[in-house]
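Hey,

Quick one before I head out. I ran the complex with zinc ion overnight. Inputs first:
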Amino acid sequence: MEVAPKSPDPVAPGAAPGPSHIRLTSHASGHGALPIHWAAASAAERGPVVGTTSKRSHRNVIGTHSGSYSVYRALAVASGALSPHHKADLTNTSPTDVIGPYPQWSEPGRIVSMDPWGARIAEVFAAELAAGYDIRPTIAVTKAHVILPEVIEALQSGRLKADGKFLTANGAAMVTKAAIEPVWYLPEVARRFGCTEADLRRVLFEETGGMYPELVTRSDLEVFLPPIGGQTIYIFGNPRDLANPAVELTARVHDECNGSDVFGSDICTCRPYLTHAIEECIQGAQRGGVGLVAYSRKEGRALGEVTKFLVYNARKRQLGGDTADQYFARTECVAGVQDMRFQELMPDTLNWLGITKIHRLVSMSNMKFDAITKAGIEIVERVNLPDALIPDDARVEMDAKMAAGYFTPGAVPDADELKKAKGRQLDT
Ligand SMILES: [Zn+2]
């Protein structure tokens, strides 16, 4: 498969790649690539994930870093703005809080879609870095103050109290947050989805338009850095308390909904859920517990925002108006499925944090509940969204979800109830 065999790195440092040849990485390099022993007991035994494109003989994975942003990196290189040989200077970038290692990190099948050592590579792979391997963190951990109007409102109405430790007088919640890029160990990802690794590789290759030939040509490479969004976690309280089942943990696992989360669109309950969970997390931390919000980049049930907006139109234009009994059907008409979030991989982050028990899960989703408990994590209590926080136009979604099995402490709407149009018209 090698096209330009003269030099392993044909592009000179600082230069944009020339037009004369394409650098294929789908050949067996054999020189210098370090082995990965997934779920090994220590970082040294596990080995680093090397997704660099500049020293291709060192690569031991399929794909490259930064998830979907790898395409922007390619644009930056193509335009000459970025040297393809740029190596990150990791001075002072180390995590503000050390996460793990926890027993789950080396239990087979527990963590299959992220690198548990991804935040600590500068420390645990110092020798390999010094030897010239371009190893990049796939996780970064930092501190932040988050200020939300709903939290300020809760403070003003007396539902929350400032303590200067978890919540300041002006409504800023003090958090530790971590950004996590996906790192998939293909044999175990296949197992989670009940297919063979060969089928998973072939379908990933075909459905990305042949983007990663190594999926089908390099069965020796078992780790894939997929071009998708990852997760961001927000921790309220001491991150190390997450792994202590004696400390009350309030948690929400939230899937991205830009329209509601950021822009306040009222057709769904996403932002109310998120801000309600943050309020619960702050209260939990102030009770001596710890809070966690894990935010997954899975826009529109991982169908994407274009599909989501098409479905909104289809719902509101259908005969009889926007009704809960047609809620999932309209999605399926456009997308072919109701949901592509596949919560199977979501609990990996919880296992990375050492969590074994969630005392209060702020979610009504039976899919999230099932995935978390199946991952070996106990859930004591589920906390639903108070009715007062559900926007009028989101009543359709809420009724449809409750009828489909979402957790509710109240009555599940019956067939007649689901047929009542509750959604707003498009032009009102
Ligand atoms: Zn939403």
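The pocket of zinc ion is lined by residues 257, 260, 268, 270 (CB under 6 Å).

Talk tomorrow,
K.
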